[in-house]
Amino acid sequence: MSTATQPTPSRFVDTAQQIITLMDGFAKLPCSPPSFYFDLEGINLSRHGTISIVQVFAVPQNCVYLLDVHTLGAQAFQTPGTDGQTTPHAILESADIAKVFFDVRRDSDALYAHFGVRLAGIQDLQLMEPRTRQGSRRLLHGLTRCIEEHAGLSPSGRQAWKVVKQRGIYRFDPKVGGSYEVFNERPLPADIRAYCVQDVQFMPRLWDFYCARLDTHGSAMVAQATRDRVTESQSQTFMANGEHMALGPWA
Q1: Residue 36 burial (10 A CB sphere; 0-12, 13-18, 19+)
Q2: What's the whole-number mean pLDDT along residues 45-51?
Q3: Are the CB atoms for 116 and 238 separated by under 8 Å?
């Protein structure tokens, strides 16, 4: 695995015509290994907040697409390609199209509550990681720790990644004077765009790392735990915040 960390090209998608073009390209991509790596940004991302941006890293195209949900609303999910069938909504709900998330719970909660998206075909990197560990699997790791330990970044690449991450955090985290409203600014500030791209840029490295270490039994356990996560996130009793979010499904 290369340790190079050149920024992945990105495109901002904020018109229906751009969605059509995007779907025409996505319809031709392979389903396995996963072509699509997803993340979401928003204000209080959950059923109680809003979705601002959906990031999609289409690996065969080597491009991160930033879907402007704040501007497009339901069009971001319902606009079909020229085949009349391929939509972001259909891709997200297809059990036959593998899609990779890191901790799908809040994303699933928000997608289901606001746009009726019932996720399927999901692979959750956060659940893959503990099945490759030695020792306790009780506590879950966050994306930052996983990238630091398992993305195979060079020292200079790790430093560049941290700089982009910190610049983004300073813009949106209220604890350091930022505001989540920055995700709704248009044009999207350069620091936030870079942060959004980087959030999905290294996910394929993690997928490769964990898949190489998962056996058949572990993969089956991850798949079931991921389905359980999606189901739980759509329930009326799901809580997107709390200490329980740091606990894994295995002791």
Answers
A1: buried
A2: 97
A3: no
